[in-house]
Amino acid sequence: MAKFARDNLPTLKKTATYYLLHVTVAALVAYAVTGNFLLSLTLSLLEPTVQAFAFFFHEKAWQRWGRKARSATALAGASA
Fold it and tell me: What are the φ/ψ torsions at residue 79 (nearest 5 degrees)?
């Protein structure tokens, strides 16, 4: 687990700050809509938690796609 954290530290940090921002915005919006503090807190923690996991894997997929795109470009350039 430590190797995973070390290997993915920038993405994990980015995910954590995104999560905090998302929870704050979601809580404010949910409270504005419901007027209920407990309900807004529940909604604001549930949805961003799912989004944080999705964001992490989305970011990793983009990093992988970028490596493949750069490799394909380099191969195309080398054969030209």
Answer: -85, -10
For residues 25 and 13, give the distance between their C-alpha atoms in angstroms, rounded to a whole number: 19
Which amino acid type is present at position 43? L
First CA to last CA distance, the chain: 43
> What would the pLDDT profile of 11-54 be if each residue is shown by its tens digit?
889 988 988 998 899 899 999 999 999 999 998 888 878 888 89
Please enumerate in sequence order all residues whose Cβ is within 8 A of that of 60, keeping only pairs 6 or more positions apart, or say none.
8, 11
CA torsion 31-33-34-35 (nearest 10°) is 50
Residue with token string 């409270």: 31
Question: What is the C-alpha separation between 63 and 31, in angstroms, rounded?
Answer: 36
